[in-house]
């Protein structure tokens, strides 16, 4: 070995030592394993954070009670609606679904001419009852002596999936105290692609109730209409002159035809076809554990399907 080789060996060893060992482990700040774990943790936290649901921009000054006798407020001016985020935090990109096949019994109108959907997802909004809507309600779903007045009610607009497979838009009038819950529940039904036949306020278009105060709920049930406020007595028991929860705006009926109501005397409204067909089906609230029922009960609303006799269409607080 020459003297040049003798000097080269230690130099080569020094170079190899520098390249192959002795360095400090990478820190999270430099993108090592620690950084990867921290990044994954942050991503997971962000992805699972549930969106919060805004509450109505205004609330009634006092809670409605069965003994109160509110009068309509002539000075109420509709305010911009509050947009309500879907409780599930997701929205479908689909623009239509397959129409629901005809069943063994159908409501008076199978595919109503619903208004088209507005915006993406459920796009629920909450606002004061507009003048035009209120005008159509007075003398029908609202009359003098009703337990709540206009200032205690709210107008909820939301997109839904119709039985015709189309994205449609409907509205319900509810008590301000449940407006947020109603908007959240109906938004969840949209995310579940739960079918709704139609959703229109109870007003002059339904005519007057032939058995007492309020708009004609019997006509609305036969047409499978989803609605809420209607200043009427308990359906099928008008002789008792006991106001229904609908008279306070704290109840909502969904898909009356697929989810019938059984009165204390055993009469079934509006049709008994679906009474013995409570399994999963389009527009049907099949059980208390179903996702569609939980959409309401998770918002603090009771389901009438657990009552005896049952009222499958009904949710209230």
UniProtKB/TrEMBL annotation:
<keyword id="KW-0732">Signal</keyword>
<dbReference type="Pfam" id="PF13539">
    <property type="entry name" value="Peptidase_M15_4"/>
</dbReference>
<feature type="domain" description="Peptidase M15C">
    <location>
        <begin position="240"/>
        <end position="316"/>
    </location>
</feature>
<feature type="signal peptide">
    <location>
        <begin position="1"/>
        <end position="19"/>
    </location>
</feature>
<feature type="compositionally biased region" description="Low complexity">
    <location>
        <begin position="36"/>
        <end position="98"/>
    </location>
</feature>
<dbReference type="GO" id="GO:0008233">
    <property type="term" value="F:peptidase activity"/>
</dbReference>
<dbReference type="InterPro" id="IPR039561">
    <property type="entry name" value="Peptidase_M15C"/>
</dbReference>
<dbReference type="InterPro" id="IPR009045">
    <property type="entry name" value="Zn_M74/Hedgehog-like"/>
</dbReference>
<feature type="region of interest" description="Disordered">
    <location>
        <begin position="22"/>
        <end position="126"/>
    </location>
</feature>
<protein>
    <recommendedName>
        <fullName>Peptidase M15C domain-containing protein</fullName>
    </recommendedName>
</protein>
């Amino acid at each position: 070995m020459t003297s040049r080789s003798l000097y080269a060996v230690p130099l080569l060893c020094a170079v190899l030592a520098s390249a192959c060992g002795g360095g400090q482990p990478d820190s999270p700040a430099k993108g090592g394993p620690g950084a990867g774990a921290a990044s994954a943790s942050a991503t997971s936290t962000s992805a699972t954070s549930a969106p919060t649901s805004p509450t109505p921009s205004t609330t009634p000054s006092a809670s409605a009670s069965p003994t109160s006798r509110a009068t309509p407020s002539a000075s109420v001016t509709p305010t911009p609606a509050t947009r309500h985020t879907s409780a599930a935090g997701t929205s479908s990109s689909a623009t239509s679904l397959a129409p629901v096949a005809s069943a063994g019994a159908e409501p008076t109108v199978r595919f109503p001419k619903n208004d088209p959907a507005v915006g993406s997802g459920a796009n629920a909004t909450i606002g004061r009852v507009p003048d035009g809507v209120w005008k159509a309600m007075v003398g029908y779903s609202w009359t003098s002596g009703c337990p709540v007045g206009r200032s205690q009610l709210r107008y909820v607009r939301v997109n839904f999936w119709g039985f015709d497979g189309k994205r449609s838009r409907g509205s319900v009038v509810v008590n301000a105290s449940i407006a947020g819950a109603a908007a959240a529940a109906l938004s969840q039904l949209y995310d579940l692609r739960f079918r709704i036949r139609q959703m229109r306020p109870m007003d002059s278009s339904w005519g007057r109730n032939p058995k007492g105060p309020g708009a004609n709920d019997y006509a609305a049930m036969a047409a499978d209409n989803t609605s809420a406020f209607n200043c009427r007595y308990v359906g099928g028991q008008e002789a008792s002159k006991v106001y229904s929860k609908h008279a306070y705006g704290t109840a909502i009926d969904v898909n009356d035809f697929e989810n019938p109501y059984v009165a204390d005397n055993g009469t079934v409204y509006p049709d008994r076809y679906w009474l013995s067909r409570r399994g999963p089906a389009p527009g049907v609230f099949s059980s208390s554990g179903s996702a569609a029922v939980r959409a309401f009960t998770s918002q603090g609303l009771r389901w009438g399907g657990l009552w005896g006799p049952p009222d499958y269409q009904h949710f209230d607080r």
